[in-house]
Amino acid sequence: MAKNKESKLLTGFLSKILKEKHSVKVNVGGKMKTITKGEALARHMVAAAIGYAETVSTYDKSGAPSGTVEVLHSPDRNLAKEILDRVEGKAATTGAKEDDSRPSVADKVTELGAKRLNDIAKKSSLKI
Q: Three-class SS of residue 35?
């Protein structure tokens, strides 16, 4: 129960943080716009899902700028699938929580089968 409560607290904090304004402005339709941290994260996820190129500054041993290098990030297929599933309203693919205090259906069936076999064995041994 405590784990579920902690998870809800974390989700609440994340939701609050993602609604805050981000310090970086982006160009949207020719206008510079301040976006939320949530939108910034969504934009980064989409870029990572489809792949993108990034220009990175390089420095020599003394720390002085020596030029730039273009780094290509290949598309992330799993992230693309996750984004599409979320947009289409499909359930998240996280594992279902199991209640360890109760036996599973498979355990119940196994136990019932073993009990029946033992009962048959007892009945047949009495007749011999």
A: strand
